[in-house]
Amino acid sequence: MNKAQVVEFFSRLAADNPHPETELESGNPYQLLVAVVLSAQATDVGVNKATRKLFQEVHTPEQMVRLGEARLKEHIKTIGLFNTKAKNVIALSEQLIADHGGEVPADRDELEKLPGVGRKTANVVMNVAFGAETFAVDTHIFRVGNRTGLARGKTPLAVELKLEKVVPQPFRLHAHHWLILHGRYVCKARTPECWRCVVADLCAFKPKTPAPKKARPDTE
Q1: Is 218 a catalytic residue?
Q2: Contact 12, 199 (CB under 8 A)
Q3: Which of 28, 47, 88, 216 is spaced 20 to 30 Å from 81 by Cα?
Q4: How confident is the model over 97-146, as pLDDT tens digits?
Q5: How far is residue 113's CA from residue 173's CA, in Å, rounded to a whole number?
Q6: Which of 138, 213, 214, 218 is catalytic?
Q7: Is 16 tagged catalytic?
Q8: Cα gap 79→34, rounded to integer Å
Q9: Which residues contact 201 (CB under 8 A, 6 or more apart)?
Q10: What global pTM score does this model have?
Q11: 3-state class of 142 per DSSP?
């Protein structure tokens, strides 16, 4: 994909969804951090169901530590890997209190020092909570980047670094949300819905998936 095609690619995604947002529900940077940690190998829908009641009770690291690991598990037991995630959430909350005065640091390197926080999680928090132009490469972005030819790479980091190079202004702030949502709802893993894709003609994927045949009406 050349520069002009990249601009057109994001222009169309932006026109289709002018104000993309994360589908994880949160009320502040701390809740966002917890939600993203919980979302590893889980759906945003599943995380939101588990955190709605939790986030009514817990708004800060101090409140999470007082809640305790056992009660946290009760809130998130419907989420995969909830035992490990509960340990990490309590540990990162304690570390935020000890090292950052209970505040979520607006620094990717510091975020990555927290238990359960990898580069993708740190990038999401930096982008959503602090408006940083970061690219959080999850399975959707990895697939879309490689499939379309926008940003090919053998690892999530390789795709992230390619996106850093190729995504122009004014698209950098929202680029990862456009790509995630496009991968989640249109450029799906098993069967991409090319027939309704707004960037299909710019995409390197072949052969394009045809529209499903409409069921014939019953005749008597």
Answers
A1: no
A2: yes
A3: 28
A4: 999 999 999 999 999 999 999 999 999 999 999 999 999 999 999 999 99
A5: 24
A6: 138
A7: no
A8: 13
A9: none
A10: 0.89
A11: helix
